[in-house]
Amino acid sequence: MNYLTKSIDLDLKSLTDTGRFSGYGSVFGNVDKGGDVVEFGAFGKSLELWSKSDRSVPTLWQHKTDEPIGAWSNLTEDKHGLLGDADLWIEDAPYARIAHKGMKTKTITGLSIGYRIKRDSYDKKTGVTTLHELDLVEISVVTNPMNDAARMTDVKSMIEAGTLPTLREFEDFLRDAGGFSKSQAAAIATCGLSKLLRGEPGDTKSDDAQTALAFLREFKLTP
Q1: How do 64-77 and 81-88 pair as beta strands?
Q2: Which of 62, 87, 106, 151 has its Cα between 20 and 30 A from that of 163?
Q3: Does residue 223 form part of some domain?
Q4: What pLDDT does residue 4 have?
Q5: Which residue has the higher pLDDT, 68 or 8?
């Protein structure tokens, strides 16, 4: 199951000198530029599991699993989105101090959830995917909400590591990073990546990854 990220503009409800803040990690009902909308209640089961595990949802720096900078508490869903409190470890984690300073000066402007999709549905008429149930993994402080370059880097990194993105991830990448329309992205992904995902007798993942990289370069989406 693929690990995904989704960012929003930082909407702080409070920020103290000791590094405690409140804010939304995700919002409901808004269609983002990737064509997704998070449904109210999408985090319900995941939050229950976190509560039963007696563990805290980690606060990471830029989605780096080796850079925890704090922990979330009191996570709950209201009509607007996923709201919670976080404590930055400003006494112990250098990047926590950077995050705190950036948030105070408004030079760091995003929060971003790391999640896995448990259940979703796609509306062919609108082109919108509704995310019904998500497995929340972490919530990061990010310098800026997810941008086109970040999506391009993510997909390129997956391919270079020998892992192909899903058809949906590749379509989103083409639309956001390549500037293609929804229909163009679907056509390109269907003709190119879908063939790789199906595989042919004798194909290897390494061969597929090299072909995918060559395909991206053909459209001048990688250096």
Answers
A1: antiparallel
A2: 62
A3: no
A4: 82
A5: 68
The answer to whether the CB of 41 falls within 8 A of the CB of 77 is: yes
The Cα–Cα gap between 12 and 85 comes to 10
Cβ–Cβ under 8 Å, residues 106 and 8 = no
Lookup result for tokens 């408004």: 106
Are 115 and 207 in the same domain? no
Specify the number of domains making up the chain: 2
Sign of CA dihedral 35, 31, 75, 69: positive
Is residue 207 over pLDDT 90? no
Q: Tell me the C-alpha to C-alpha distance, in Å, between residue 88 and each of 6, 93, 188, 209, 214.
A: 21, 8, 43, 39, 42
Range of the domain at 187: 149-218
Shared domain check, 191 and 91 = no
pLDDT, tens digit, for every residue of 103-148?
999 888 889 999 999 999 998 888 889 999 999 999 999 987 654 4
